Amino acid sequence: MRTESLDRLRTRITSIDAMPAIPVILRPLLRCLDQPVEQIDIDKIVELVSYDKSIAAQCLRIANSALFMRNAPAETVRSAVMSLGMWRVRDLLFSNSLSQVIPAKRWVVDPAVFWRHSLGVALVCRKLAEMIEYPDPEKAYLAGLLHDIGVIVNCMVAGEDFRVASEKAAREQIPLDEAEQATLGFTHNDTGRILADAWKIPADIGEAIELHHQVGDPQRGGPLVALVHLSDLLCRMRDLGYGYYEPRQIDFANEPGWLYLTMQFPYLAEIDFARFTFALDEYAKEVSDLVAAVFSS
Amino acid sequence: MSNQTILVKEDAAVPENLGDPAWIRIRDLIYQVSGIYQAENKFYLLVSRANRRMKVVGARSPREYLEFLTARPNRDSEMRNLLNEITIGETCLFRSLPQIDALRKVVIPSVAEAKKKLSFTKLRFWSAGCSTGEEPYTLAMLLMEETQTTLKGWTFEIVATDLNDRSVAKAQEGIYNDYAVRNVPPEFMSKYFIKSGTDFRVADSVRPHITFTRLNLLDDSKMLFMRGLDAVFCCNVLIYFDGKSKGRTVQHFYNALLPNGYFFLGHSESLFGINETFRLVHFPGATAYWKPSEAVTKAGAP
Lengths: 297, 302
What we know:
The complex is a heterodimer.
Chain A: H1 3-14, H2 26-33, H3 42-51, H4 53-63, H5 77-84, H6 86-99, H7 111-132, H8 137-146, H9 150-172, H10 176-183, H11 188-198, H12 203-211, H13 223-237, H14 256-264, H15 273-295
Helix pairs in contact in A: 1-11, 4-5, 7-8, 7-13, 7-15, 8-12, 8-13, 9-10, 9-11, 11-12, 12-13, 13-14
Chain B: H1 2-12, H2 22-34, H3 43-57, H4 62-70, H5 75-87, H6 97-117, E1 122-128, H7 134-148, E2 155-162, H8 165-173, E3 175-176, H9 186-192, E4 193-196, E5 199-202, E6 210-214, H10 220-223, E7 229-234, H11 243-256, E8 257-265, E9 279-283, E10 286-290, H12 294-300
Helix pairs in contact in B: 2-4, 3-5, 4-5
């Protein structure tokens, strides 16, 4: 979408009251996690978790579920956080707080399927970033997590029309953005970018949100766009997609995002991509369990 | 059949040493030697099967068993025994549904379209290492469906080869127990199988499409005659070859395929480090290796 039409869409969407507000927990959480792992303050995380009763209860419940329970049951938020590990707690906080930005009845797509895909892309994106030695894997994680956030905006601002678009995508087995363009005239990439700007999310993540379906324009978007694009594709090929079959063949080594990344990160060409792909099935299980735990309450 | 039922029950129990870090090293060793990757969420399967081998050889811990696989004089034969255990039960009809979806929805249409442009209306598939026939019969049934619906007027041929005479003979019989047909969709079951006692016999309509022969994949002189194929399937066979033989055999497969042809391995089996000419391609839930048509090679060469 060209800049002027994106601006027009921005005016249209931001003038509606339906635009979701940034969850209260998100900003401190982003700040807290925007630093090297060894410097993350566990007390700060415990404080954030305790801040929301339902999230705290959920952490305890999941820490004590058969999936994660270690030796003794966790009785405090702190011990729950310790037993789940920082990353899972972060995943829980994100998906919980982001799920709550719109009322449950406004969801047009199944929120569990949506978060499964978003968390899957986030994990794959971080892993791929680590493998190619991209300097900021946590940023890659966040870009992956938020890449489809425009779907939430579309649920709010386009409601029934967006339902038509997502049903068209599933029925015709085509990518969601194609169906949106045909039905709505704009896509979740556009509205996601608008939301990211409104929430003051870092600009390169905003770019990844906007451009993850149109990789290849070297003037716009850096490695983050390519990382999100490839992770999104890979998740859709490995049972972490939107729940419908996409009959297509993908030759990753020939994708524009791949070609772009190999120029800057030569390690990419050396990755055993078959093995990387097979290992994703491990995430698929973990992500499904986590999301099921979030949505079972 | 009763054997396999017991085996499934055994696999269901969580082994005590499941959390031992040595398993990761055993998993990586298996991958390095055979190309088969055991995802961690399927570890219980690897572990319970390796535990059976550990009992046989008398290894007391995964760490000690790793030594049996790497440092003992008969390590190669023990690795072979372990690979046998791991791949047990993988031969059944309609084994991999994602692979079947990829064939029906992407591969067969794409191959047929390319061939149609050259006025060809015949497809040729090769099941290399067909064991007791489950794979070639599955392929024949799929292609029969296609040639009755989307590919009307097309014909096809399936070449099925195996090193083992007894397997080939068993394959030709085409009689399976209910465990081997457990994945077959009901509509295929009623159309292509005839119940015979407790077993199921492949219908006569399927048989003329398949040619069964004994073939050694390491016999270069024979391999040179295999040409003009649209897809080759070679599941859990290369895992037993050493690196050099793997490379040579895969190159034969590559040469046997037409441009735009596909090479399918077993589930979670990879060609990494074996062959650089094939391209790894992804379908939902399945991967394959693809021989690009020349135009693509030129445009897409990195």
